Amino acid sequence: MKIVNLASRESAWRGYEYYKAGNVVSCEAVEEGVYQGKVRGSENAVYSVLINVNRPHNSSCNCPFSKSGTRIVCKHQVALYFAAFPDDAVEYKKQVDKEQA
Q: 77 and 67 in contact (C-beta within 8 Å)?
């Protein structure tokens, strides 16, 4: 299952907005299906993000929302996901537009 599908509707949308705004500072593949990077959040804080597309629950971010220990997918993880998979960002936006029509 895609990381964006595990995020709340709000986190998915905010992650998309962060991606489109260029808040993903870096994104690199570290192994098959695992990406790490830095994502700029609110008030210019920069968070360290790790996403694992094969095991999404092994993904992490050091933002306060994710550090709560609940394994919640945050907007920073979604933004990094879209940076790694830009075609999925396009499809996500099409789906949102379709739902709002």
A: no
pLDDT digits (tens, 9 = 90+) for 33-79: 999 999 999 888 999 999 999 998 889 999 988 765 566 899 999 99
Task: Report pTM.
Answer: 0.93
Beta bridge partner(s), residue 39:
24, 47
Return the higher-pLDDT residue of 101 and 6.
6
> What interhelical angle do 86-100 and 75-84 show, nearest 10?
120
| DSSP 3-state of 21 | coil
CB atoms within 10 A of CB 63: 19
Measured at the CA of 16, the angle between CA 49 and CA 14, to 5 degrees, comes to 80
Q: Which residues pair with 31 in a beta bridge?
A: 34
Candidates 26, 31, 3, 29; CA nearest to 15 is 3
Fill in the amino acid letter for 22.
Answer: G
